[in-house]
Amino acid sequence: MDLKNVNLIGNVGAGTMGHATALQFAMHGYPVNLFDQDSASLDRGIVTIQHDLATFDRAGLLAEEPATILERIHPTTDLQTAFAHADFIIESITENLDVKRTVWQAIEQVIQPNTIMATNTSGLDPTALQSGLAHPERFVVAHFWNPAQLMPLVEVVPGQATDTATVDLTVHLMNHIGKHAVPLKKASLGFVGNRIQLAVLREALHIVDQGIATPEAVDDIIKYSLGRRWSLVGPIASADLGGLDVFTNISSYLYQDLANDTGTDPVLQAKVQAGELGLKSGHGFYNWTGAAGQQLVAQRDADLLALLKADHDTENPS
Ligand code: NAI
Question: Whose alpha carbon is nearest atom 36 of ligand 1?
Fold first, then answer.
């Protein structure tokens, strides 16, 4: 299937991720059938979409009136209505293998012969997800990052039975709707982004646990060094720039001292056992009682929006 054959999007799930994927397609001209099993979730999803549209409008990021974009999104709780004519389906429902497999098998009963089926799983194995399907070759992972209306990356991950054409079409489509799609050669636990995020987190928590630095110090060190650099030049190109002889040398004495636990993280587990879950419980490594957490999220999203605007202005010079 070519990009020009993609005319209608089916979107499964209207929650944190699903509302944002529906909006992303609608903002780029696609009609979207937004399906959820729960009509209250659909209502909430539409309200969130309206809120995001207003934010994008204020930032000058919309090529059309918000109402025109919203009209392209058709909420429904009926599977047949949602997917019978869809050319590309993106699913963001509960992160559970059995739930996802059941829903995809039901969807496959009503779709056309060429429809591409994409799941926004955070890390379930695409080979396991596609194994119950009659046409696993048209099934792929399209892993967006939260908040999906603001973060550019989509990891496109094939299962063992996925066709190359399915990966290619998904990459083209994601780029066409303004995302930055990166295909992986094959699936791995955590794909790539979460493998690296967790490797960094394991070491950051080890540093705190060893009394080397406070959580605040670790976060500042990343924000003012690697965080800035990696948004411009990734870790592998950075090693090239620094000299591979230098990095070889550092690895020779440093790797042996780095965290290498293989089980559940002991520092995180202790926090969870103490009821300290972070922002949602008011305490984690920081104190989140009061408005500080919401303010941090709002500031982060405002800064992400500014970066999106800068990307948009570079791509659309006046
Ligand atoms: P959510 O809980 O906000 O939304 C899930 C939605 O799916 C709800 O509206 C629910 O009513 C609906 N739903 C559940 N089961 C359903 C079914 N059987 N049929 C139809 N609708 C159903 O969840 P969220 O955070 O949007 O996550 C969805 C998926 O996206 C998960 O696989 C998650 O791992 C993945 N993801 C989540 C990220 C995050 O940071 N929240 C980041 C990247 C991926």
Answer: 122
Atom of ligand 1 lying closest to residue 45 CA: 9
What pLDDT was estimated at residue 316?
A: 81
Task: Compute the distance between CA of residue 15 and CA of residue 5 in angstroms, rounded to an integer.
Answer: 27
Q: Check: CB of residue 76 under 8 Å from CB of residue 50.
A: no
Domain with residue 41: its CATH number is 3.40.50.720
Domain presence at residue 202:
yes
**Could you list the residue range(s) of the whole structural domain that residue 251 is in?**
192-264
Residues 140 and 11 in one domain: yes
Q: How far is residue 159's CA from residue 136's CA, in Å, rounded to a whole number?
A: 8
Q: Which residues of the chain fall short of a pLDDT of 50?
A: none
Give the distance (Å) from ligand 1 centre to CA of residue 2: 28
Atom of ligand 1 minimally distant from the CA of 14: 9
CATH number at residue 221: 1.10.1040.10
Ligand 1 surroundings by CB, under 6 angstroms? 12-18, 36-38, 41, 92-95, 99, 103, 120-122, 144, 146
Sequence-separated (6 or more) residues with CB below 8 Å from residue 296:
none
Encode pLDDT of 105-136 as tens digits.
999 999 999 999 999 999 999 999 999 999 99
Prediction pTM value: 0.95
Encode pLDDT of 228-249 as tens digits.
999 999 999 999 999 999 999 9
In a domain, 306, yes or no: no
